[in-house]
Description:
The chain has helices at about 30-35, 50-65, 80-85, 115-125, and strands at about 5-10, 15, 20-25, 40-45, 70-75, 95-100, 105-110. The N and C termini lie far apart (about 30 Å). The chain has one domain (about 5-125): Glutaredoxin. Residues about 1-15 have low confidence and may be disordered. The chain is an alpha/beta fold.
Amino acid sequence: MQERLWRQNPNQRELKSMSESIIAVDESNYESEVEQSTIPVVIDFWAPWCGPCLALMPTVEAVASMYKGKIKVVKINVDENKALFEPFGVRGIPYLVVVEQGKAPRQIKQHTRTRLAMEFDEILLGSA
């Protein structure tokens, strides 16, 4: 069973599964989930200690649910996957990037629910 989106429990400091719309990616499944994806992929680079990352989770989850099956949303924990985030030039988190076959990766800089939905719409229009 694949691991999914995680939320840190401040009392127990454990990570809990939260959504089936978002896939946790590491070196073992990066190629199959991102590079071989037939639909556009949005990568959310994050860390469990990052307050802004945790605050962004509900927004990313809501938008991922709206576009499930059309755009794949994955999360990469930067603490555990240095080899995966370095090629994208990640300097700070949260960091969202769009990966589409045959196109250069593109950063998503606006993180509001409305703006993310607009970005996802633009991705779909560009993929048609």
